Structure formats: C-alpha cells, structure tokens
Amino acid sequence: MHLRSGDAADLAVGCTLLGSGGGGAVTAGQLLLAATLAARGPLPLVAAAELEPTARVACVGAVGSPTVMRERPAGVDEFVAAVRALERHTGHRFDALQPLEIGGVNGLLGPMVAAATGLPLVDGDAMGRAYPRLDHTVLQGIVPATPLALADPGGRLLIMQDAPRQSVEPVVRAVLPALGAWAAICLHSGTAADYAGAAVGGSVSRALTLGRALARRSRDDGADFLAAAGAAVLAEGTVDEVRRGRPGSGDGGVATVRLAGDPLGSLRLDFADEYMAAIVDGAPVVTAPDIIGLLDARTWAPITVERLATQQRVRLVRLPAPEELRDRQARRPDFGLAAYGMAPVRPEEVG
After folding, report:
1. What does the pLDDT look like over 139-170, one tens digit per residue?
2. What are the S-Me-THD N-terminal domain coordinates in residue numbering (predicted)?
3. Which domain range does residue 53 map to?
4. Is pTM, for the whole model, over 0.85?
C-alpha cells in the first residue's frame, strides 16, 4: 500500500477523529503532507513485521504548544534535522519511520517526514490516539524514548542522551520555551522486531479508512461510517455550556449538552487536551482510553476541544481503543483516566 497526495485530506479527517478532541489542528500538517507527497511521489506504507527484524525504526512528530505551532508553522527541514541528528548520535541509519501518535497533527507529520527522508512509513504509532504526554506510549519499557533529538525551526538541535521514563516529559517540557514553545522530535530508536511486538499496528491505515468513510458516508444516519469504524452513537443534543480552566493553565474544563428529545437529560463532557470522559444522566458511558468523538450533528465533522462552543448541535460517538492500548492499560492504569489525573472507572461501569 502507498500513501499519495490525494490521501492527505482523508487522513487528516481520520487523524482528527482519532485525536479524541485533541492532538492539535491538522490543517498545516495536511498541506505539508500533500505537498511533500506531490513532490516526492507515493509513500510506501509497511507493517513493522514486514521489515527485517533488525531494521532500525524511530518515531517522529512534534511536541509542544499547538497554538504556537499555528503562529510559527512547521516546515519540513526541522523534522528531517531531528531524524538525521538522532541517526548521527546513535550511529544507525533508520530504515523506516513511524508517527509518534496517530491522533491529530502528528498523524500527518509522521508520513510527511518519512516521505521527505525517502524512508517507508510503518503502519502504526506509539499511542493509538492522542495523549498529552510523551511517556504515554506503548513503547515505554520496550523501546526507550532516549536518546532523542529535538530540532526547532530556527536551526537549533538538542540531544537528550539518557533519562528514566518519568523524566523525559518534564525535561523536554522544560527546554521547549528555549526552542520557541514547540519542536520536531525523533525518539524511540529501536528494531523493527521491537516495533512489531509493541507498537499500535495498522493505525495509519485505520485513520485513512475512517477519514474516507466519514467523508464519503452515503446515509444521513452515518450507518456506513459507524460500521466501518466499529463505532456507536451514544447521545445527541445541543451544547448548553462550556466551562474552561484559566488560559494556559492546562486545567481543561467541562461541557454540558442538553440531550435531544429529552428535556431533562444531560451529557457531561470532561476534557483536558482531549475529551476524557462522557457521562449521561450521571452514568459514565465512555472514558479514555476509548476514543471520544464529538461530531457536528449535521455534517458529521469532528469537533475538537478548542472549537467546542455553546449552541452547537453535536453527536457523541465512541470508537473502541486499539487492543494494544487495552492490553497496556491492564498493566499501566495511566493509559486511561489516570493519564489526566482522574480516578479510574471500573470497566463494567462503561459497558
């Protein structure tokens, strides 16, 4: 399978949906990917298991403020610089690249960097959705995050040689202000065998399939899309209130939706960088790691956390988390609500 320039729009829709409301705006990434594929030609999309077991693979993406990234748009050069810097540091040329996360803009930047470097793209990612922290990856404990390389649009490069898992996120966040609030990142350098056994497989092709199905749905009730996604509509209604934390605080917020056809019914949405939990009439119906899709009730377009507003007519959809995330959550609770500092909910409580 190959990704082509014409696939960028559908992939962008799928990545937005898999972002569970977060992951950063995809518009710039979509344009970069389409332009790079138009210039470089189709990009091979391969499973990690199809590569030689000893082939070298790394994750690539962006880290930092999505808001600043819109003000200081990404280019190709800083991502290529991060990849080449980590190659020099490790002494290994990479044989393939993989997106760091499939949710949001990183699901598009990964393919863009692979195309720009002439490397095949592994059909997978390290998160299966969007998560707010670098240590929320299924590769942790199998393929160390460090050494890693950071590169900013101004040409600055930084190598982090070695750090415990719990130190990677705070150290990277601490240096980002000096790099202009966001940077390209290349990390999790490992073998194809490691990736085949640990990464979330098939996530790029899943995003592309979801995007195509959503954009080309043939029925007003979205039945064809829902079947393709394995998704379920949980609620519909009108947004009555959106309460956000203080700007820049990272506190997230909560939204209240008045349910259609039930004047006393309500949906509560808790969110941070992504939608974390949905509660209908006091009962949780979906929580992380499952993917919470909030869609425009008329167009079915995904509504991200930052674009959530009162008076929108919305449809709540649950997409099941990849099995890799469920397996890891059983061993590491912080892949669920604990990722956002919330108490976990027992699985039987969300059906």
Report:
1. 988 999 999 999 999 899 999 998 888 889 99
2. 7-161
3. 2-203
4. yes
181 and 266 within one domain: no
Residues 231 and 156 in one domain: no
The model's pLDDT over 91-102, given as tens digits with 9 standing for 90+, comes to 999 999 999 999
| Residue 347 clears pLDDT 60, i.e. is over it | no
User: Which CA distances in Å does 65 have to 79, 113, 188, 259?
Assistant: 16, 19, 21, 33
d(CA 235, CA 260): 8
Nearest to 291 by CA among 274, 279, 312: 274
> For the domain that residue 11 is a member of, what is the CATH number?
3.40.1610.10
Which H or E element spans position 79? helix 77-90
Q: What is the domain-level CATH number for residue 228?
A: 2.40.390
Token couple for 213:
């199905």
Eight-state DSSP code of residue 252: -
pLDDT tens digit string along 267-305? 999 999 999 999 999 899 999 999 999 999 999 999 999
Residues 179, 99 within the same domain: yes
How many structural domains comprise the chain? 2
Contact indicator for 254, 269 with CB cutoff of 8 Å: yes
